[in-house]
Design goal:
This protein is an alpha+beta fold. The protein has eight helices and nine strands. The longest helix has about 40 residues.
Length: about 280
């Protein structure tokens, strides 16, 4: 009876440890495929060591029938996992290919002389004196620039407000009055500290002013601010450098009088709990 219990423990242990090690290896390989490599944790190597010990004990104690059963269990586990890994890698490759085909347009820089846009690995600089005209639709955001070819920027364009801010005078179809009024009327966001609050909603962090809807979920506005600041300034892993409450944004200016309601220590503690520990699991 004792022998049977030992056999069950060894087989179950091998099965569980085997899957744990292979899933970690799969995550590592998948990270390499999608260019987001992950480190193999010490737990993976510990599990691998224990797995080898279990297999050695099984081969020593088991009779021929149990050894054949052990081999069958390992073969089935490997086959199922290899199939799963192949399916996941194929889906990942398709996902990466799709994302590359749907390259996001980014405004890299803009000033009174020119602007530079990037689309994937390609960067192109345009000079304002080469632009024929500009048309701007406010809702939804749509900026059409007529150059040698028509350029269109919408709400998916990163740093679109940087481009809007630096359009120089001289384009008859462009509404300068609205543009100037738009930036002048922006207010500081009490949550992220940027001057990007329009109609009680921050165009950068998405947080909103205190309202009856927030009262249903928060006891106070301060609680809402603290919760969002912890998440906005959190670091995704412990190797990421803390930004010292500065948001790297090209669209809007920072409020020089703004101060966070949370401390660096509180942000890092939140980061460890919500992001770092999650990655280790």
């Amino acid at each position: 009876m004792k022998m049977k219990i030992l056999e069950i423990i060894i087989i179950v242990g091998i099965f569980v440890l085997f899957y744990r090690v292979l899933f970690d290896l799969f995550a590592y390989i998948k990270g390499l495929v999608i260019s987001k490599p992950q480190k193999l944790e010490k737990k993976t190597f510990y599990c691998l060591g224990i797995l080898l010990i279990f297999i050695a004990v099984g081969l020593f104690y088991f009779d021929k029938k149990m050894i054949l059963l052990l081999r069958a269990v390992i073969f089935i586990a490997v086959s199922v996992l290899i199939l799963f890994i192949l399916i996941e890698l194929i889906l990942s490759l398709f996902s990466v290919s799709y994302l590359k085909s749907k390259k996001q347009t980014i405004i890299d820089s803009a000033d009174n002389k020119s602007f530079t846009i990037s689309n994937g690995m390609k960067k192109t600089q345009y000079y304002w004196n080469e632009i024929q005209d500009i048309k701007f639709d406010k809702e939804p955001f749509r900026l059409t620039i007529f150059a040698k070819r028509k350029l269109t920027f919408d709400e998916k364009t990163q740093n679109r407000y940087l481009l809007l801010k630096h359009i120089p005078l001289g384009f008859s179809s462009f509404d300068y009055t609205y543009r100037d009024s738009f930036f002048v009327n922006l207010k500081p966001c009490i949550v992220c500290g940027t001057i990007a609050l329009q109609d009680d909603e921050c165009l950068l962090c998405g947080c909103v002013s205190w309202s009856a809807d927030l009262e249903k979920n928060y006891s106070s506005y301060e609680e809402y601010i603290i919760e969002n600041q912890l998440d906005i300034f959190a670091t995704i892993d412990e190797n990421e450098k803390f930004n010292n409450f500065k948001i790297n944004d090209k669209n809007f200016d920072s409020d020089p009088n703004w101060k966070p309601k949370v401390t660096k220590e509180e942000v890092l503690a939140f980061s460890k709990k919500e992001y770092w520990d999650w990655e280790e699991e």
